[in-house]
From TrEMBL:
InterPro entries: Flag_bb_rod_N, Flagellar_basal_body_rod_CS. The lineage of its organism: Bacteria, Pseudomonadati, Pseudomonadota, Alphaproteobacteria, Hyphomicrobiales. This is Flagellar basal-body rod protein FlgB. Transmembrane segments: none annotated. It comes from the Bacteria. It is found in: Bacterial flagellum basal body. Belongs to the flagella basal body rod proteins family. One of its GO terms (cellular component) is bacterial-type flagellum basal body. Its main location: other. Residues 17-37 form the Flagellar basal body rod protein N-terminal domain.
Length: 126
């Protein structure tokens, strides 16, 4: 059975939630900007599936066959509920739903980590 690095996964999820909150805040800030299209991040499960051990290279000739592309953007344009005449696709209701999802994600992440920490403390105390 493989080891599960719960603290590492929780840290990655917290970083993902912070980045998603930034994207949602940008969408809300640009709600009245003509031509602005709503953005969102790929889901955390997709990010976690593509995240793995990254090899580093000390020369351009090393690891050339891996075909890694640096600086790939994980933001995806999202199909919005409605597009206004100005070409803006940000719907404040949809962005507020996303903000609620982010808040619940933070709360879930925190409660799981608290429970795991209590479990560790109880096992150390005996």
């Amino acid at each position: 059975m493989d080891q599960v690095y719960l603290f590492g996964i929780a840290s990655q999820r917290s970083s993902w939630l912070a980045n998603r909150q930034t994207v949602v805040a940008e969408n809300i800030a640009n709600a009245s900007t003509p031509g602005y299209t709503s953005k969102d991040l790929a889901s955390f499960s997709e990010v976690l599936d593509t995240t793995g051990l990254q090899l580093s290279q000390s020369s351009d000739m090393h690891l050339a066959s891996l075909g890694r592309r640096r600086g790939e953007d994980t933001t995806v344009s999202e199909d919005s509920w409605d597009v206004r005449h100005s070409g803006n696709s940000v719907m404040l209701e949809q962005e507020m739903l996303k903000a609620g999802e982010i808040s619940r994600g933070y709360a879930l992440n925190t409660s799981v980590m608290k429970a795991f920490q209590r479990l560790l403390v109880m096992s150390v105390k005996g």
